[in-house]
Automatic annotation (TrEMBL):
One of its GO terms (biological process) is mannan biosynthetic process. The lineage of its organism: Eukaryota, Fungi, Dikarya, Ascomycota, Pezizomycotina. One of its GO terms (molecular function) is alpha-1,2-mannosyltransferase activity. It is found in: Golgi apparatus membrane. Residues 30-54 are annotated as: Disordered. This is Alpha 1,2-mannosyltransferase. Keywords: Golgi apparatus, Membrane, Signal, Signal-anchor, Transferase, Transmembrane, Transmembrane helix.
Amino acid sequence: MAQGPRYRRSFPLVLIALFLYFTLRRTSSSASSASSSPPPPVDNRYPPVSAHSDNPTTADHGRLWLAFHGILRAAEPRCKSPKRIEDHPSAIGFKPDEVDHVTLPEHIIVETEDREILKKAHSRFTSLLSSRTAPKLRYTPGTKGIVSTAGGRYLPVLVTSLYMLRKTGSTLPVEIFVADKSEYDEYVCAVLLPSLNAKCVILADILDYSPLDEGLKKYQFKIFSLLFSSFEQVLFLDADSFPMHDPINLFNSEPFLSTGLVTWPDFWQVTYHPSFFHVSSQQIPTGFSHASTESGQLLVSKKSHAQMLLLSAYYNFYGPSHYYLLLSQGHPGEGDKETFIAPALILQLPFYAVSTGPAVFGYRKPDGQWEGGVILQANPIWDSRLPKGKVYGWGGKPSAPPESFMTCHANLPKLDPISVFGEKGLAWNAEGKPQRMWGPAHDMVDKVGFDIERRLWGELRTTACELEGKFVPWNDKPKLCETIGQFLKHMADK
């Protein structure tokens, strides 16, 4: 009984403790309930799909691919491919004065049922891409660099382009993506490229985290090299494309600073099939201010345009089966070329399409026909400063001035010493005498300000001399280092 008063005095304290306990428990429960409720709607245009890492590793990119491959598979368009009406429809030239009213051709057939399946799959992909758990692109923040793809016997083309890049004074780092170990050359990748501030990246080391049923096809390598590059800001160049001037200012100037995506034009009008706009839930535009894209070069920020790159990857992943036809319909250059502006438009992301038309160098074939094998593209900095309505380089328009050009995309001949200086190379005429490939020197000076072909000869010789006896695929090829040296002496004043 003596303890009764003490218990009575402590009873209010017990009540207070119980009150605080249940109050705090209820608050905690409410917070937990709120955290487990569905997240607020995400703006589909700008989901959080880019992330930086100080030095992304192969494992980082592999985990990205593992997650992203699952999304690609979940959004597979399980329907028939569009049917071609004709394999090679007539090209439609771009007309800068008629951009407000563009009639899209219809050279493929997309059946109604297939179109609806494509639409649902496209919608599923964009929905998965906009979720808070969507994969994040990896890159090193603040970095700028050049990315390309090559491999095997095509590595000498890349090496020549790299020498041409370094001739401009550029010190930008370069990443070259090769498909797998069979395309990797020990001397080029482990010895030569590092001496030029470049390196090989084996794409299969990343893709093996979630293996493909079939390997990547020709036009699919570009987008995957962009996804897995370590650079935040990327100038992509085809292996046979090189700058004629140091490209560093492209990263630091308009129009790239305000847009994050710069593309260059092909000679043709865009040829999207009308069904593409239904599939991607868009209204069909009445006009297109830009030409089709020549994707031998592309300038993009992975930070600002991560979602565009992932949607582009979707179009390329299902490109051979569906989207290349939907976007190009068999017109010239069908492949990845239209898979960059299209997703930017869908996602309402800014881009700058260079307005100046491409120029061309070419040569006469043995039968006398002219072959345009080299495409010259304008500097977007110069292009963006043109007065409104001032257009160069298209039919009926003045030629762009020499200072306007930035890149040279040499499709024919391929820029390896054997293709140019071998027995049937374009450096020799029908009698086996030395000749110029792309026309008189004064024409080049008039067009681009200097003799670009003469510079190329020198770098082709450097490639030949550097790789002879070291590049395994050349073991049974003629030795051309000395031959090119003699050619240069003969052509010294030509």
